[in-house]
Amino acid sequence: MEKVEKILQDVLNAGIALFRAGEGSVASAVADVKKTFEELKTKGAADNSESAVKLRKILDDIVKQAGDLNNKASGTYGDSVKQLQDLYAKASAEIEKIVPKEQLDQVKGKVDELSKAIQAKVEEVTKTVKEKTGGTGAGPTAV
């Protein structure tokens, strides 16, 4: 009977180690994404070009207006959605006036690149966890 208990204890310990290994991979992937985001955030904050300053002002105004809309609890949901859509359209138009199309395309490309990198990391971690746990759950969802 002691042998069975020893085997069960060994299986439990191996399972704990396996779980921790998968947990470490996920934590590492999250840390990588956070680090990349912080680097991008720092680079963006350091950009004090005229277009960056204008863009920040526009977004600050939009956030303020959106907050004001949110605080107007007496308005109807539909009116608020319409106003938010109008604000978004206005912001998009202003951004397109200030930022050259090739820069917008470049930013969109970088965002797509970052999304693909994040998705690849998620898939890599998911695969690693499945391999280590023998899991057969559903695949990762799109980021």
Question: Can you put this structure into words, describing what you see?
Answer:
- This protein is mainly α and 143 residues long.
- The chain folds into two domains: 1-46; 48-125, no CATH class.
- Residues 137-143 have low confidence and may be disordered.
- It is built from four helices and no strands.
- It is 85% helix and 0% strand.
- This is Methyl-accepting chemotaxis-like protein.
- It comes from Leptonema illini DSM 21528.
Summarize the structure.
The chain has 143 residues and is mainly α. The chain has 2 domains: 46 residues; 78 residues, no CATH class.
Question: Strands, helices and their partners?
Answer:
Elements: H1 2-46, H2 50-71, H3 77-98, H4 101-133
List the keywords:
143 residues, Methyl-accepting chemotaxis-like protein, disordered C terminus, elongated
What is the mean predicted local confidence, pLDDT?
Answer: 77
- SSE ordering: HHHH
The number of helical elements comes to 4
Q: Give helix % range.
A: over 70%
Rounded to an integer in angstroms, the radius of gyration calculated over CA atoms is 24 Å
Main beta sheet: strand number and arrangement?
A: none
Give the termini separation: 49 Å
Q: Work out the number of β strands.
A: 0
Shape: elongated
Strand content: under 5%
User: What structural class do helix, strand and pairing data support?
Assistant: mainly alpha
In terms of per-residue confidence, which ranges show pLDDT below 50 for 5 or more consecutive residues?
137-143
Number of domains: 2
